[in-house]
Design a protein that fits this description.
The chain is of the alpha+beta class. It has 20 helices and ten strands. Strand 1 and strand 2 form a beta hairpin. Helix 2 crosses helix 4 (90-101). The radius of gyration is 22 Å and the shape is globular. The chain starts with 10 loop residues before the first helix and ends with a helix.
Length: 461
């Protein structure tokens, strides 16, 4: 019993009750209620995902997308972080920045389930906060709320296979939740906005990543637009139904509902605590493979490799494409990731440049990669392991393994590493941005109280 009312037992009603509880908590949450380590995590997610947006500024398809959006944009009110001073209406800016944020595979992710909660909140928040004149403090509170809701909704429905890609199926929910929090909607209005947004999601197939369909990169941008509009439409009475989350994710998408995930540990177990950050510009499922490969690079001459074999977890085995046709496919190709890491000694953006797709030596090495199962698979947080073996030209075999890649809550990166990554991306196109983000990461009170519009102006000056 809660407040004297009997609790529902069917999954759909339990989901409705869970969202009501979650949004009551979210609407009442003040910035001062957020523990300082979680505020720092929110600032880190914001800065890291903003850097991921900047990193994609020279991608030719993204440049074309920006030009196309500019043709139909309304009044300039929000920045596109393309290094060129582009400003569009908030919906167009959120669409472009959302599409850029996942392009280079450098955005933050949520480790407990398949979800990039920051990616689903940040692009819409950047546009809304700049257009609406919110403060950085307001933005970080809204990001904390949106991240919590996106992460919990992702946990509330489970799938046994990699069928739906979360960028399509969750981005609109994160955007709506965070924008609703930024605009100060009531708990009831926020619940309606979330229920509306979930009906606007994209049923993006997961295999589009492995096959390299670049439309996948646009799904977070579409979600940012849809989430913003879901809030707009909610305020004029156009909404889904209270059961929409269950209707979409359980009934339509055939997910297994776990209603308790919406409320268990609420206000104590923060979703932001379970995020991860990436130093390698490829799918996180392969980061353990990268780390094992780097350990081999440190002790063996990679030029003597004759064959590569990897035993890895079931999600990693889905990254099976020896002939990636696009840079996206390369970042989701275990063969390319292993071959490129061996050749270049890293898995940074250069290892997935368009020129690497047709490089003869890399193409030949990709064909020499075989993939097997790591059995038995360990429990979380070691549920994404890799054991990499190089067979050398003289027949010798050398092996290294990594049970869990660095960057997650079990093996966090040092804050200086994340800051160095951010500065390495933003310093050239935006010389002033790094210092501003450093102060934000330090939760400088003056910067928290400054309007985000002024902060953006300072970063892009």
């Amino acid at each position: 019993m809660i407040d004297g009312s009997p609790q529902p037992t069917d999954p759909a009603s339990r989901i409705v009750a869970g969202i009501e509880t979650l949004t009551r908590w979210a609407a009442a949450l003040r910035f001062e209620d957020i523990p300082e380590p979680i505020r720092v995590r929110a600032a880190t997610v914001l800065a890291d995902d903003l850097a991921a947006i900047v990193a994609a500024r020279d991608e030719p398809e993204l440049i074309g997308l920006t030009a196309g959006m500019a043709k139909s944009s309304g009044a300039a009110e929000a920045t596109v972080f393309d290094g060129k001073g582009t400003r569009l209406d908030r919906y167009s800016a959120a669409t472009v920045n959302g599409s850029a944020a996942d392009w280079c595979e450098l955005d933050e992710g949520y480790r407990r389930v398949i979800c990039h909660a920051g990616l689903y909140c940040v692009p819409a928040l950047l546009a809304e906060a700049e257009a609406g004149g919110a403060t950085a403090r307001d933005l970080l509170r809204a990001l904390t709320v949106g991240y919590e809701i996106a992460g919990r909704v992702a946990r509330a429905f489970g799938w046994a296979t990699l069928t739906l890609h979360p960028h399509g199926s969750l981005a609109a929910v994160g955007a709506a939740a965070s924008v609703a929090a930024l605009r100060g909607l009531s708990a009831q209005e926020m619940a309606k906005a979330i229920s509306t947004a979930c009906t606007l999601v994209v049923p993006g197939p997961f295999n589009h990543t492995v096959e390299g369909a670049l439309v996948r990169n646009v799904w977070p941008g579409v979600g940012a637009w849809s989430g913003l509009r879901a809030v707009d439409w909610t305020l004029c009475g156009i909404t889904g139904r209270p059961e929409s989350l269950h209707d979409v994710y359980a009934s339509a998408f055939n997910g297994e509902p776990h209603p308790e995930e919406l409320t268990d540990g609420l206000g104590e177990d923060w979703a932001l605590s379970d995020g991860y950050h990436k130093l390698h510009a490829c799918c996180q499922y392969a980061h353990s493979a990268v780390e094992a490969s780097l350990a081999l690079c440190a002790k063996v001459d990679a030029s003597t490799i004759r064959e590569i074999h990897i035993d890895t977890h079931w999600k990693g085995r889905h990254l099976d494409n020896a002939q990636p046709a696009t840079t996206l496919a390369a970042k989701f190709s275990m063969q390319h990731i292993l071959a490129a890491t061996a050749q270049f000694g890293h898995a940074g953006a250069e290892a997935f440049h368009a020129s690497t797709l047709t490089a003869p030596e890399l193409a030949a090495m990709r064909e020499k990669v075989t993939i097997g199962a790591y059995e038995p698979e360990p429990a979380w947080p070691n549920d994404r392991p890799a054991r990499v073996t190089w067979v050398l030209s003289d027949g010798a075999r050398v092996t290294e393994e990594c049970l869990s890649a660095r960057g997650g809550p079990d093996r966090p990166l040092d804050p200086s590493e994340v800051r160095a990554k951010i500065r390495g991306i933003v310093d050239a196109p935006y010389p002033a941005m790094g210092a501003v983000l450093e102060r934000l990461l330090d939760l400088d009170p003056a910067d928290l109280d400054r309007s985000w519009r002024d902060t953006v102006a300072a970063m892009t000056a």
